[in-house]
Amino acid sequence: MANESRPCPCDIGDRFDYGGRGQEVEVGHIKAYVCKPSASTDKAVIVIHDIFGWQLPNTRYIADMLTTNGYIAICPDFFVGQEAWKPSNDWASFDDWVKTRDAGKIDKEVDVVLKYLKDQCGAKKIGVVGFCWGGAAVQHLMLKNPHLKTGVSLYGVIRRFEDKHSLLHPTFFIFGEKDDFIPLEQVTLLEQKLKQNCKVDYEVKIYPGQTHGFVHRKREDINPQDKPFIEEGRQDMINWLNKYI
């Protein structure tokens, strides 16, 4: 995502060659990717995509990973039909582009998704995870949506909600030490604000040597030195969800 010190958006990273185990469905006025475990469950996770949109194979890979851990996983198109960012786009246009896609204005879509999960999938306990743009959206939802149990924000853009820290639900924040888009000073300030204002369980964790997007945009086979941290981030995400859903 954009940052004051670095105005261009993040690199797409290693694009996964992955087709997905789930299916695309219509959920109210939006499309969504849904994957369900073989065994019946009332636990679900909403997966909020990054700037590269709901069809990015990397994000669907994570949704399917959640399903293999027993969750119904749904990745809706929170851009509501607007085009996702493309690596070939002109970086100079990014600020104007992202203004039309506000991570703090997804409540209508979330309500539709929650209704679908409850009515069509039998879900009763629902959490949310999000990456980059979606990580900021998770923080927004943790501040105001009473129907979610917990959230995991992965390298969410902190400045988007820098003055809002009274979380309603337990929230786990994942950051990379070498993230060019989220300086460590912002992470430190987030921790201080949460300590002062947050009344629920939370954790902020920084992964050594990791760059923006490492949990879902890096492939272990291409980045063997990062493999332990990629796997740790994914397992930490699942452990947090298991604890609170």
UniProtKB/TrEMBL annotation:
Entry's Gene Ontology cellular component terms: cytosol
Cellular compartment(s): Cytoplasm, Cytosol
UniProt entry tagged with the keyword Cytoplasm: yes
Keyword Cytoplasm: yes
One Gene Ontology term of the molecular function aspect: hydrolase activity
Domain Dienelactone hydrolase: 30-244
Superkingdom classification of source: Eukaryota
Coiled-coil positions: none
Subcellular location, principal: cytoplasm
Keywords assigned by UniProt, alphabetized: Cytoplasm
InterPro entries: AB_hydrolase_fold, CMBL, Dienelactn_hydro
Family: Belongs to the dienelactone hydrolase family.
Protein name, per record: Carboxymethylenebutenolidase homolog
Phylogenetic lineage: Eukaryota, Metazoa, Chordata, Craniata, Vertebrata
Gene: Cmbl_1
